[in-house]
Amino acid sequence: MPKRKNKIPGWIDQYAKAVRRFTFNHDHDPGSHLPFNAFRFYPLYFNVWLDKIYQAIILTNRRKYGSGKIIKAMPAYGSLKYIFYTLVNMAGYFDYDVKRAKVIFDFFVKIMQSISADKNIFNEYENILRTPSQLKPIIAGLKKVSGEQEKKTLAKFIGILAMYNHALYNDFSTEFGYSIEGPYQLNAEEQLVIRHFPNLNPKELWPSLAGIKLSNIVVCSIYKNIRLKMRFTTTHLITKDNYQDKLAKYLIFINDKPMLNSNKLFALTTKIAERTAQIYQEQKKLNFERTKIKFLTQQAYELKGLFDLAGLNWRPGQELLNKVRNKKLKSGGIIKMSYPANKKEYEDYVGVSYLKKVYG
């Protein structure tokens, strides 16, 4: 009998649709991002990075951890989606071993399916992680906005946090330190957005942060008479309106405790702004070689939880460092800014053809 072909998983088509705008939208021009165009850096080393991730998954699976422990060790959903995007792109670029690739992809897809409350785990317009019943206690605890000044204070606080997160993690690991959950449509008029800043004190990356007690911040906001949606990654909200003006209710949690004092919030905003400037100054002192190492370390830090479960050193190893040492960014046709001429060209470019090869 002829060998039966495997059925292509439905999530591959979802992925193919979801990354189209993200890949070819001017908001995601990797050439304009800092510290450099990572898609010209990845080709120098990513096959070794894939090998390390594969090894970590194999070792973690052998230890038979419960799914809850593995999920807890992994980064937030938006970070998982972007990491997956890079894995698919670069596995396709290297024509990576399909058996190893399937182990990697299955691992990440299973986790995203476990976390998401949306059947479409690659939904490019929303990031739905909770059911209505899970949202009820959150909504009940939110307070009404007292006036325009409070709206401005909150908007400034969120803006400074986003800048601080960018300083910590760069443009290509942004989602590790900042993700947006939602928008949840509560009724005809209201949408709920939950902003997460889960790791604000990565002293492993920035030793100067040692001793700072700020660890995580969550901002829950209800906006009225506005229509919000997302990009593929979960740090960009899209709307035609100024959502600051549409804020109706909110609550901030600092290190898991509610922050209700506007004066303390203003003081905290000032401190975070000072730390942001401090980290940017540290970055400016790095030459190109040290910037590459910092980038690799930031990328590795996103999966520190996985490597810890596997019993591996999360930091970039010598083989990986040797791949990039004294190397310029890769030139050539790695990045395509114009939209492909047809479906096949598009699927080849974003790695969908490779996914179909892995699962075909």
Task: Give a structural overview.
The structure is a single chain. With 360 residues, the protein is an alpha+beta fold. It folds into 2 domains: 185 residues, no CATH class; 153 residues, no CATH class. Helices cover 50% and strands 11% of the residues. It has 14 helices and 8 strands. The strands form 2 sheets. Strands 1, 2, 3, 4, 7 and 8 form a 6-stranded antiparallel beta sheet that branches. Strands 5-6 form a two-stranded antiparallel ribbon. It is globular and about 55 Å long.
Give the percentage of residues in beta strands.
5-15%
Overall 3D form:
globular
Unreliable runs, pLDDT <50, ≥5 residues? Answer: none
Helix segment count?
Answer: 14
> What is the string of helix and strand elements?
HHHHHHEHHEEEEEEEHHHHHH
The tally of structural domains comes to 2
How far from one another are the termini? Answer: 18 Å
Mean pLDDT: 90
Cα-atom radius of gyration: 21 Å
Helix content: 40-55%
Tell me about the largest β-sheet.
6 strands, antiparallel
Label the structural class.
alpha+beta
Number of strands: 8
Short synopsis of the structure:
The chain is α+β, with helices and mostly antiparallel strands. The protein is 50% helix and 11% strand. It folds into two domains: 10-123 and 289-359, no CATH class; 132-284, no CATH class.
